[in-house]
Amino acid sequence: MLSKSGSPLPSSKEITTYSSSDVYVTLVQWETKDREGKGTAWPADMAYDLEETTTKNKAGEISVRELLTSNNKTIGWTNVKPGTYKLIIKNTGSYWAAGNGFVRAYEK
């Protein structure tokens, strides 16, 4: 659960690339009225970015405004420079948000 308009949340795990790479995130997301995730699910307004852990350089924010509960969506960045990255997630909506996903990198 991610609070409404709260601070960005970094992923607990990192992904490391050793050459220029395309990085993709497959995700599901939804918005709910309360912290426990109860109530009707609505489209969530979320923003995703990759942040290099040493330099803090970012790959570029991607906004996703959809209800993704029974399906998923893949977003991505191309030509990401070598480095170790965390996925940064921000709830830009009006209510609590929930979801999950995974990250993959394809080196060129």
**Main sheet makeup:** 5 strands, antiparallel
Report Rg.
Answer: 14 Å
| Total number of helices | 0
Strand pairing plus helix content: what structural class?
mainly beta
Average pLDDT, all residues: 90
- Name the beta content range: over 45%
What can you see in these coordinates?
The protein is mostly beta strands. The protein is built from no helices and 8 strands. The strands form 2 sheets. Strands 1, 2, 4, 5 and 7 form a 5-stranded antiparallel sheet that branches. Strands 6-3-8 form a 3-stranded antiparallel sheet, with no helix packed on it. The N and C termini lie far apart (35 Å). The model has no long low-confidence stretch (mean pLDDT 90).
